Amino acid sequence: MWCQSCKEEYEEEDAGTCKECYEEASETEEELKREIDDLRSRLLFLRLPFPTLDAAATGHADLLLHASCCAGSGGSDSDAGRLDTPAVPAHRVILVSFPLRAFSMASRSPVFRAMLENEMEESRSGIIKIYDVTYDVLRAFVHYMYTAEVLLDEQMASDLLVLAEKYEVKHLKAYCEKFITSKVNNDNAITHYAFAHRHSAKQLLEASLLVLMDNMSTLADREEYKELVEKDPRLVVEIYEAYLNRQVNTAAGKDRSH
Amino acid sequence: MWCQSCKEEYEEEDAGTCKECYEEASETEEELKREIDDLRSRLLFLRLPFPTLDAAATGHADLLLHASCCAGSGGSDSDAGRLDTPAVPAHRVILVSFPLRAFSMASRSPVFRAMLENEMEESRSGIIKIYDVTYDVLRAFVHYMYTAEVLLDEQMASDLLVLAEKYEVKHLKAYCEKFITSKVNNDNAITHYAFAHRHSAKQLLEASLLVLMDNMSTLADREEYKELVEKDPRLVVEIYEAYLNRQVNTAAGKDRSH
Fold first, then answer.
1. DSSP letter at B87?
2. In terms of domain of life, where is this protein from (chains A, B) (predicted)?
3. For a tag site, which of A257, B94, B111, B233 has the least CB within 10 Å?
4. Are strands A15-18 and B15-18 parallel, antiparallel or unpaired?
């Protein structure tokens, strides 16, 4: 027989589908591709261009966000107030957004919303300081609010996840978490496991725990392990508990199958 | 043989694909579906909620659009100035939008942009009158700017196409044109043909011309035909020219094949 797709001959034991199913599948694929084209063109339409500093100067953007790396972790108060990196301009309507009925994800940032809709200092001045973040990360964060696009590496994904969690931008947090999860391996699993714990990233937590449990024999030799025992021994306990739990379940499964 | 997809038996002459191609196609389908999910969730994120009149009153929306049906086609000047339907609130940043490099479609409305970025009356007052349009159509138009979504019937699609053309919202115009094109039949082909001509809707023009050429024997009996001969005979000439052209080409094709 001749395959209608690759046009090569095949034997009966290599048969895949009947003609009807092949034709249906081809139609489905075409439909899916058309849907993708349609969704992409809507996305392009809805994407708003990231405002320039010019736009802010001429009054088109009504917010200025300032990244401040120094505050929080050890920076002095005067450091926190310094606005020495360029500002990131933005529009209130884009950052705040009101939740669309039935689309809970569509409320871009409830935190910005609370900040800008109440009579807080930020709302009056239009100037918002964002602490513990570099200019590049803040810029990528605001850019995402306009375009739903960002170029990630592991560092950027971690930094953005933290910021997205702080400002409750669920969609961006989920996007970063998915990216980091795809990068989990034996070398970084402890770091990602601890990170996932700190930032309630369930998918990443599960993925790194799985990798850790598959490599228990070398776990205790790792430098990051020793650090975690020092810093947060309860998290280490949870790894052992999960591991033991899995062993017990596997044993019970084997018993049942005998 | 047994089909791996529908699980039914089939004969050799009903064979579709080999196993390898079947498995590849299944993977492709899964990938396309994942991409659709991803695009949909980005769309949901980028969709902005349509502002309420409350938002305008409390200063969150900085524009008010007024539909005015009366002007243009016979309305008096005083009619044109009447603002008796509710206003449609909007944000400058959403209507104007700056073109994103490489995405020419992303400039939502160059016309609004020119209006609001120059020191025109509309820019100062934040009040824009939109002529020859009902409140419902204007509302759907602005809603589309926030969500890239609209519920169409043929009337709404025609009205929105006209408005989208006037304000150069290419994406919406293309969307409406596609919808109307899908509804072309022998009964409405003349109307749609003339409409497509008036509004430079090439896809719709071609689709209605094809239907007209397939039904030439009854063309001249139609009421809309007689009206078009009265109103714009050149358009009727173009139908006949296209028909003749096709006949000549078909004959030439037959000659070559003999």
1. P
2. Eukaryota
3. A257
4. antiparallel
Q: Which has the closest alpha carbon to A158: A129, A198, A128?
A: A198
* B105 in A contact zone (CB under 8 Å): yes
Distance from CA of B186 to the nearest CA of A (A): 27
Rounded (5°) CA angle B194-B200-B201: 80
Kindly state whether A17 is in contact with chain B, defined as any CB-CB distance less than 8 angstroms.
Answer: yes
Cα distance between residue A172 and residue A157, in whole Å: 9
Q: Which helix (H) or strand (E) holds B102?
A: none
Q: Residue A28: closest CA among chain B residues belongs to which residue?
A: B29
The DSSP element (H or E) to which B75 belongs, if any, is: none
Q: Which of B147, B183, B148, B180 is nearest to B162 (CA)?
A: B180
Half-sphere exposure of B176 (CA within 13 A, CB side): 29
Name the residue ranges covered by the structural domains of chain B. 49-156, 184-258
User: What are the average pLDDT values for consecutive 10-residue runs of chain B, which has 258 residues?
Assistant: 90 90 93 94 85 66 82 43 72 69 54 75 83 92 91 96 92 95 96 96 97 93 94 94 91 81
Q: Cβ–Cβ of B20/A14 closer than 8 Å? A: yes
**Burial class (CB within 10 angstroms; exposed 0-12, middle 13-18, buried 19+) of B94:** buried
User: Is-contact B5 A21, C-beta < 8 A?
Assistant: yes
Chain B touched by A150 (CB under 8 Å): no
* Identity of residue B55: A
CB contacts < 8 A, A to B, total: 174
Chain B interface includes A5 (CB < 8 A) = yes
Q: What is the CATH number of domain B49-156?
A: 3.30.710.10
The class that CATH gives domain A184-258 is mainly alpha
Q: What is the ipTM of this complex?
A: 0.79
Q: By C-alpha distance, which of B13, B164, B106 is closest to A50?
A: B106
Residue A130 in contact with residue A65, Cβ under 8 Å? yes
Residues in B 158-197 with any Cβ partner in A closer than 8 A: 171
Nearest-CA neighbor of B168 among B102, B95, B119, B100?
B95
